[in-house]
Design goal:
about 450 residues, elongated, 7-stranded mixed β-sheet, alpha/beta, disordered N terminus
């Protein structure tokens, strides 16, 4: 006969064992119950993704999302809502295509995406023979005469052996960031990379790249895993020519905004930040990356207000601009906080997808880490157990550099890089309960920080 466990009894028992107060356990339960039953984040994510869609910085859709976020923060009960000015780079994709020509003389179209911030071909065909390398080390050994006037295919696969998929992503990320400049330094025409993807499909994944100073800005494009495997097989047996035509490129800068809302502290105005980034890439709907983090952060404010939790310190939700191709929103927020001598106690970001929360990564001194880790038994009934990470998000990195303890929500990572930066990152891929549990965990953590720091 199966035992039926009453969650509230379990929570109270765990709290007693952990040395936390019964009040903390009860508050955790109230927070979770409220959000799972009445949370608005899932419906708001549907509005953001379906009514507005993808939100590349500099686009009209992004500007619509700014107005949307400001209204949602007001609806959540924020005492104050404002827009923070930030100059952002404007990159446009435009029409693009990639074809390969095999030994039989026929051209085949490949699914592809230009990498973000890449320059294109100005609408002209650029073609040449493809050469393939499997690693940066292999490319480094190639003499420049072997690369000159060629197209370099960086065929480094996402390492499926890592249980922690973000490790594989970081390893493969070096190719996305550097392929164009490496190709240009040896006289190549453009670069093709295998997508940073854990999926066994043919969906290309875009993402940010950068150019080194004083190097020609040759294009960089990405192809999906299936196309990469097929291209590799072809290259083992024959010469392959590629032809790229793309209209992408930088279009200067423009004034835009991050969106900020807060509940004023009752004891002082020291700031606790919760946030995500409002922009997304220009494919898909930006649901997991990072619409999820936006609606989760707004939910934190709503829950404090709905439950009447009297916060000691100011709790501030920040919808950062331009994380994907410049991080200008996070940098401007940090600069403004420093210029205004604002004291920040803590900041947490949600930018790893809206999947079920499994942990909290803590980038702070050991004293603070140990204090938060001592609360682990309060979080265990909610499936949160991993407090070992030491990384926090890019938008709050400037705060960390100022000495602020920072953290990142750690959702289950196994599906994230199947759809990351692709047309597949849509609202339909988000589970309501998993998304709202992420909101719950961040609210619970901020409740503890606000009470104890």
């Amino acid at each position: 006969m199966k035992k039926i466990i009453n969650l509230s009894v379990l929570i109270l028992g765990v709290a007693f064992v952990s040395g936390q107060t019964k009040e903390d356990s009860i508050q955790f339960n109230r927070i979770s119950t409220e959000i799972l039953n009445n949370g608005k984040g899932y419906n708001e994510l549907k509005e953001l993704t379906k009514d507005i869609g993808n939100r590349l910085s500099g686009s009209q859709a992004y500007e619509e999302s700014v107005k949307w976020a400001a209204q949602k923060l007001k609806d959540a009960g924020a005492d104050k809502v404002w827009l923070q000015e930030v100059m952002i780079p404007v990159w446009e994709r435009g029409k693009e295509s990639l074809h390969i020509k095999t030994s039989n003389g026929s051209w085949k179209s490949l699914k592809m995406l230009s990498l973000g911030n890449s320059e294109g071909t100005a609408g002209k065909d650029v073609s040449g023979e493809i050469i393939m390398v499997k690693s940066l080390e292999e490319y480094d050994r190639l003499p420049a005469e072997k690369v000159k006037d060629k197209i370099v295919f960086f065929n480094y696969p996402f390492n499926q052996g890592h249980v922690q998929t973000f490790i594989a992503y970081r390893e493969a990320g070096a190719y996305r960031r550097t392929a164009a400049s490496l190709t240009a330094k040896k006289g190549g025409k453009f670069a093709v990379i295998r997508s940073l993807s854990s999926a066994f499909d043919d969906v290309p994944h875009t993402g940010n790249m950068r150019y080194d100073d004083n190097v020609s800005k040759v294009p960089a494009v990405t192809i999906g895993n299936t196309s990469a495997d097929e291209l590799e097989a072809l290259l083992k047996n024959q010469k392959v020519t590629a032809k790229l035509n793309s209209n992408c490129g930088m279009r200067g800068e423009k004034l835009s905004h991050s969106v900020i809302g807060e509940i004023t502290g009752k004891k002082d105005q020291n700031v606790i930040v919760v946030g995500g980034h409002l922009d997304s890439w220009d494919v898909g709907e930006g649901a997991h990356d990072d619409g999820a983090g936006i609606v989760q952060s707004i939910e934190v404010l709503r829950t404090f207000k709905k439950l009447g939790i009297q916060n000691n310190h100011t709790i501030r939700a920040v919808c950062f601009a331009n994380e994907e191709n410049g991080t200008k929103g996070g940098k401007q927020y940090g600069k403004t906080a420093k210029d205004h001598n604002e004291k920040h106690l803590f900041a947490i970001e949600s930018d790893a997808g809206g999947y079920a929360p499994r942990g909290i990564s803590l980038e702070m001194d050991n004293t603070k880490r140990d204090q938060i880790k001592s609360w682990v038994n309060l979080f265990l009934p909610y499936g949160v157990y991993n407090f070992e990470g030491k990384y926090s998000g890019s938008d709050i990195a400037p705060l960390h550099e100022m000495g602020v303890p920072t953290a990142e929500l750690v959702p289950d990572p196994q599906r994230y890089f199947d759809i990351h930066h692709t047309s597949e990152d849509t609202f339909e891929k988000v589970n309501r309960r998993e998304l709202l549990l992420g909101s719950s965990v961040m609210t619970q953590l901020i409740y503890m920080i606000d009470k104890n720091w």
